[in-house]
Write a structure and sequence with these properties.
Layout: H1 2-25, H2 31-56, H3 66-77, H4 84-96
Helix pairs in contact: 1-2, 2-3, 2-4
The structure holds flavin-adenine dinucleotide (FAD).
């Protein structure tokens, strides 16, 4: 059930990502929409990387395995470019208007 939901979410995020790219190319992408995309995609990336590492067991935690690098690289996405807590602040401010 959780895996099906993850698949559905991945599909929805891809559509949203495409739409945001269109908006960006048209110079119409606003901060709140971009923040929603950053929050959604980076949270999902971390979840996927975490599941992949889990699949490899303890070896996945060793630097010798590429999945370890993918895990570390995905984790920083929630920090830089504006941390995800800040994305939540931007989105919630818009919701409170
Ligand atoms: C590898 C790497 C590369 C980077 N490259 C660049 C770059 O090229 N250009 C650039 O400009 N910056 C870059 N940065 C900086 C990056 O944008 C900042 O790290 C990021 O914005 C978070 O700021 P901070 O590290 O000062 O964390 P802090 O602001 O100290 O935050 C620490 C923690 O507190 C949380 N927090 C802070 N304020 C709030 C709040 N009001 N409410 C709730 N939680 C809060 C944060 O979410 C975070 O979890 C890079 C950072 C890294 C790690």
């Amino acid at each position: 059930m959780l895996k099906s939901l993850m698949r559905l979410l991945e599909g929805l995020v891809m559509v949203f990502c495409d739409r945001c790219t269109e908006l960006l190319l048209e110079d119409k992408l606003d901060t709140v929409t971009a923040s929603k995309l950053k929050l959604l995609t980076t949270d999902l990336q971390c979840k996927v990387a975490d599941e992949c590492l889990q699949l490899h067991g303890g070896w996945g935690y060793m630097w010798e395995y590429p999945v370890c690098r993918a895990f570390a690289d995905s984790r920083v996405q929630r920090i830089y470019g504006g941390s995800n807590e800040i994305m939540k602040l931007i989105i919630s401010r818009e919701l409170m208007k």
